[in-house]
Design goal:
Layout (H helix, E strand, L loop, with lengths): L9 E3 L3 H10 L16 E3 L2 H9 L8 E4 L3 H14 L10 E5 L12 H9 L5 E7 L4 H5 L4 E7 L2 H11 L4 E6 L2 H23 L4 H21 L10 H12 L4 H10 L4 H5 L6 H15 L5 H11 L4 H9 L7
Parallel strand pairs: 1-2, 3-4, 4-5, 6-7
Antiparallel strand pairs: 5-6
Helix pairs in contact: 3-4, 7-8, 7-9, 7-10, 7-12, 7-13, 8-9, 12-13, 13-14
The structure holds nicotinamide-adenine-dinucleotide (NAD) and SN-glycerol-3-phosphate.
């Protein structure tokens, strides 16, 4: 998206072959082989050179790093940045760092901002935030319009992202509710698996609408308990991303659910190495809910089906048989 309007966009890829294909052929053969990337897009396999390129930027929009790695790679990339960043004085020009990953660490139950803080806090002039919202990578790469939200403690981070993306097909909103944005991004993946299972079982569009609506209530319940703002969950990073992921055929989390509803096993579905963050974070979401004494029935049902051998029709029957309650 950035390279559609800027000549200074540079991708770092850890695989030099991938960097060469993106930088020279303007193609991403592994993930989007049929889409021509902007000719202005440059790429490198040299991590230090990519970092130096950002530090050389003359304004905050140029000194912006966007980490497009999954949860599993976030800590490692942040540690690499911490190790490679030259010592900075408090008056050094600000650098803004965003991450796009949506999830919870399955082992430690940490949120992305906590993982980033562990690796990068205390570095002078480095401001961090999360970039989230309804955004299938394929559609972004095709240059189709997209609206996203940046959440960061420093309002300058949202402004830097707005300036960087201005003139592209991406519109950026700002908020300071990092926790609310991260809970929405992580939990919508679990709800997309639930909707996929329902659709794989051919339970109909009424059932899907019910899962989206009650799923949103569940996301908001957990998010508010963890300190997020209730309004955030009806914005782009909550309702917006939930609707996209629960209904859009491009969603990998939804695809996992559909395949399970159709009778395939999780091991079989994930054997090709697909990234489906909802699978990795469902248990952590369940554990956090229990720790806070919250009722998260759809998350419980997804965990039951994914990990505890509960048959999908049995999970549906259990959800329907719950005691009646007010909405
Ligand atoms: N794909 C989408 O449509 C989309 C949209 C918005 C947000 N997200 C979120 O962004 C994150 C990344 O998603 P994705 O689909 O791009 O994932 P992906 O699995 O395609 O990985 C993206 C890139 O990160 C690289 N990578 C993985 N671990 C790394 C590491 N330790 N160091 C360096 N590079 C590493 C991969 O090789 C790949 O090139 C996920 O959390 C996802 O939920 C994805
Ligand atoms: O393909 P998914 O299910 O990981 O969803 C991708 C993005 O998170 C949609 O905003």
């Amino acid at each position: 998206a950035l390279a559609s309007a800027r000549s200074d966009a540079l991708i770092w890829a850890r695989d030099p072959e991938q960097a060469r294909a993106i930088g020279q052929q303007h193609l991403n053969p592994r993930h989007l082989p049929d889409i021509a990337l902007p000719s202005a897009l440059r790429a490198t396999g040299d991590f230090d050179a990519a970092l130096a390129h950002v530090l050389d930027g003359s304004d905050p929009a140029e000194r912006l790093i966007v980490l497009g790695v999954p949860m599993a790679g976030l800590a490692e990339v942040c540690r690499r940045i911490a190790a490679a960043l030259p010592a900075r004085t408090p008056d050094a020009p600000p650098v803004h760092l965003l991450w796009t990953c949506k999830g919870i660490s399955p082992d430690t139950h940490e949120w992305p901002h906590q993982i980033v803080a562990q690796a990068l806090s205390g570095i002078a002039g480095l401001h961090t935030g999360v970039l989230s919202g309804p955004s299938f990578a394929r559609e972004v790469a095709q240059g189709l319009p997209v609206a996203l939200t940046v959440a960061g403690r420093d309002p300058g981070t949202g402004r830097a992202a707005q300036a960087a993306f201005h003139g592209t097909r991406a519109r950026i909103y700002g908020t300071r509710d990092v926790m609310g944005v991260e809970v929405g991004g992580a939990l919508k993946n679990v709800m997309a698996i639930a909707c996929g299972i329902s659709d794989g079982l051919r339970l109909g569009t009424n059932a899907r609408a019910a899962l989206i609506t009650r799923g949103l209530a569940e996301i908001q319940r957990l998010g508010v308990a963890l300190g997020g703002q209730a309004d955030t969950f009806i914005g782009l990073t909550g309702l917006g991303d939930l609707v996209l992921t629960a209904t859009g055929e491009l969603s990998r989390n939804r695809q996992v659910g559909v395949a399970i509803g159709q009778g395939r096993t999780l091991d079989d579905i994930l054997a090709g190495g697909m990234t489906a963050e909802g699978v990795r974070c469902a248990r952590a979401a369940q554990a956090l809910g229990r720790r806070h004494g919250l009722d998260l029935p759809i998350t419980d049902a997804v965990c039951g089906v994914l990990f505890d051998g509960v048959a999908p029709p049995q999970a549906v029957a259990a959800l329907l048989a719950r005691d009646p309650r007010d909405e």
